[in-house]
Amino acid sequence: MFHEDERVELVFREQYDGRRISFLEGKCVLIGTQWRDDVKDGQKWQVAIRHSDTYAVAKPLALIAEASPEHAKPRERLIVAGRDIQGNFVPTSPTKVHGSWIEPEDIVADGERVAFFVDAANVDRAARDAGLRIDWPRLRDYFLGPGRLMKTLYYTVDWGADSEQNEFLERLVHDGFTVIPKRAKRIFDPETNETRVKANIDIELALDMVSMADLYDVAYLLSGDSDFERVLKVLQARGKRVHVVGTFPSMSRELRFASDKPVFYLEHFASQVGDAME
Questions:
Q1: Per-domain residue ranges for the chain?
Q2: Is the distance from CB of 227 to CB of 236 less than 8 angstroms?
């Protein structure tokens, strides 16, 4: 039994993971999964709405208008967690469609607001292990596609008087990045006579993704850290699309499952985002 709070007329857009969403007074409205196939991209429906605190679920009642011509274009089959959006099992990488790699321009619409959140320690280390030197402005411009850049935040460990790092960060600032450094703490353990280095930026990055959510439609999270699983789910409940970018070995199972699809693996786009390390 569907307990409705109100009835409204809304236009729904199909997302690349198969969801149909609209917005009502700033709140994301999602077509219930059992009625998803009934609603096509760009159609206007009368729906019954059931509200929760952060989003609403809609039950389609009557089709009001068909999609306008620009919304009626057929979409390619996309692979989502091992299955395409028709539910057929596809035993290939989640970034592959009909034998060719999905490009960022395939998932970002013209003018959509895009933000980047870079877990630098995680991605830089993973890229080095994959033999790739990332060119950060090239990576940002490539994944931006036809979108509109809102923010590029680069979270990194501040090692203090490291002239090479400081010069690198100055170049990023010059290229339009917002650098958010966190000073490394050295903690001495008297029992072992060892000094540990602590510098975790996960909380800062997660808080910024949520607090800035009104500024973007699509976010790229550059990390493989499973600690970000929950923040992705919170943002998706608010109607945001969050795509994860990383490398195969460093990508956690939790992020692979939680990310909007496709997940982007740097190994597939090495020539577009950087250079091979010698």
A1: 6-71, 79-276
A2: no
